Amino acid sequence: MSSLAVRGGTVIDETGARRADVLVVDGLVAEVAPAVSAEGARELDATGCWVCPGLVDLHVHLRQPGAEHAETVATGSRAAALGGFTAVVAMANTLPPLDTVAAVRQVRAWGREAGLCDVHPAAAITVGRAGERLVDFAALHAAGVRLFTDDGDEVADAAVMRAAFEATAPLDGAVLGQHSECATLVAGGHLHEGDVSDALGLRGRPAEAEEVTVARDLALARLTGGRLHVLHASAARTVDLVRRARAEGVAVTMEVTPQHLTLTQQACAGGDPTFKVNPPLRDAADLAALRAGLADGTVDAIATDHAPHPPAAKARPFADAPPGMLGLETALAVVLTDLVAPGVVDLPTALRALSWRPARIAGLRAAGHGRPVAPGEPANLCVVDPGEAWVVDGAALASRSRNTPFAGRRLEGRARHTVQGGEAVVVGGEAQR
Length: 433
Ligand SMILES: [Zn+2]
Description:
- This protein has 433 residues and is of the alpha/beta class.
- It has two domains: 3-50 and 377-431, Urease, subunit C, domain 1; 54-361, Metal-dependent hydrolases (TIM Barrel), CATH 3.20.20.
- The strands form five sheets. A seven-stranded mixed β-sheet has the order 3-2-7-18-19-20-21. A five-stranded parallel β-sheet has the order 11-12-15-16-17. A four-stranded mixed β-sheet has the order 5-4-1-6, with no helix packed on it.
- 30% of the residues lie in helices and 23% in strands.
- The chain is globular.
- The longest helix is centred in the middle third of the chain and has 18 residues, at 207-224.
- It has 13 helices and 21 strands.
- Helix 4 (158-168) packs across helix 7 (207-224).
- It binds zinc ion.
- Zinc ion is lined by residues 151-152, 179, 231-232.
């Protein structure tokens, strides 16, 4: 294998920050020092950059198998690597859904073949995501799955969810990810139930639908000793519920997307389905509560919910267009521009939510993600240029789809290099395969 010398940057990880070069040999960090000597190593210029553990995304839709016209594991992996991610958790709502060991192994193999990012598939909670029969948790756990989710829909039946908690509680590191929207309360809804849904004359999805499911699942996690991960939280009351439950000892974690931290229902006022997403963009008070939760650590992770849809699908009227937004290539820059630069959160808090906390939630520290940049550690690194200014252009994204809500935004900060498993997979903002 090759060696790499990452020179001139500031290393930032959960142990703190220090000015240092990083030498990578045979997939591992070999030396972290003010000036490493590295004959024959490939040099990566990190002048003015932060050298961080690779970013970890708990929530991406890679659409393969079944919707390869929207994204594939390879195109999604490229988007991830360009965004600074070295590991992603692929959701199970593919066609067919990932509910067997064979299906999970297939997605993992596609990820290895692409060779740009570690792709860790989630598995469904119920067979076919139908909400009735539980998957074989023990077999999937033995095959390496840690996050189980029917994402796209909630597990609506409380007794099924209780049984899922009971089955996963004894499995080391297993966690249930819930798409927390009460299915009957959001049926037929297209956006946040509020001023904008009224103005557009469209049925809404009330914030209370999230509150109902989160409260129910927290009660079931407490009852069973199971672990709950609240996917893409969108409402202020969710932050309160999680904060309180955690103080009572319930095993719960939560994630928020960059879009829910930066956009509100007002983005939908013009009827542009680019801004249609489930759960929906909510109001300013929700956004403020999510930001406060991120700052105080109640929100564990920033996850993209990267959800590619082809242009034709997003060109339909708001009521007919599918929900979802791209996120992998913009997440870091949106967080730096809209949250870190204005002082909503500091840089270590942002990186904690983008790397080491999500790595813990998904059990990916054992796979070498979200760990300190130190000798002997697997070399999964993201080199961030905080000064690079760029304008988001949907057509220039590596994703096979174009549905970014940030098109035209001027952002500051970008991944310059990404090192995955000791290999430079992105150099100078260019994917190497
Ligand atoms: Zn979801």
